[in-house]
Amino acid sequence: MSLLDVRNVHKSYDNGVEILRNVNFSMERKECLGLVGESGCGKSTLARLILQIESFDKGSILFEGTELQNKSERSLKPYRKNIQAVLQNPASALNPKLRIKDSLMDPYLQFGSQVNLKYFTYTSEANFIGQLLETVELPRSFAERYPHELSGGQKQRVTIARAISIEPALIILDEPASSLDVLSQAALLKLLGGLRETLDTSYLFISHDLSAVQEMSQRIMVMKGGVIVDSFEKEQLFCSDRHSYTKELISMFE
């Protein structure tokens, strides 16, 4: 059974503009699937549908074989435990009034009774938070800081620590490094790659940057105008039968 199945998903806005059309793909456990395309093509909309932040018009999204559309919030709770997100702007993802330790504890407080931790251990709140910070290569002392006291890269590491705190089966990474400088981007991608292997989790890695997607992913999907126009193993990126839009993206990064 696949971890995630997206089948014939269509999504239109209230004005009738179709943003996603006939989107189909599956994800396996412990893999990183990349989704690349220009801004506005529907990548982030697809992420919101998988996260059940928005509904879609037709089709189905199944997580571990369970259909998610039209479920009550109570029925979705076990699903929300198993899928977390890291988004583009870490500043907007962290409550400026909360210390880092309080933001990091939030998922565990919501789902702790349902979580069977394998990598982290919970013996005390301080120790748990310390483990999370060290895992994303931040000092334990950052627990007492507020978001405004951290750099952009440090804030994004905190959001990653929060996402992995309950060891979800899937993490959606929507442009996680695009707001960072080049050096911070490289360090963050390296960290994310190591965490996926350590935690045995899966990533849906969304970006407009083909080079970042290629570095992170085992399989790559290319989206244009709300349609997945190409899908292939990473090693097949430069094959001659790639879609013309894929070739256009490649030419931009050569």
Automatic annotation (TrEMBL):
The protein, known as: Oligopeptide ABC transporter ATP-binding protein
Residue span(s) of domain ABC transporter: 4-250
SUPFAM superfamilies, alphabetized: P-loop containing nucleoside triphosphate hydrolases
Superkingdom per UniProt: Bacteria
InterPro entries: AAA+_ATPase, ABC_transp_ATP-bind, ABC_transporter-like_ATP-bd, ABC_transporter-like_CS, P-loop_NTPase
UniProt GO MF annotations: ATP binding; ATP hydrolysis activity
Biological processes annotated in GO: transmembrane transport
Organism: Peribacillus simplex
CDD domains: ABC_NikE_OppD_transporters (cd03257)
Keywords attached to this entry: ATP-binding, Nucleotide-binding, Transport
PANTHER family per record: TRANSPORT ATP-BINDING PROTEIN
SMART domains with a match to the protein in the record: AAA
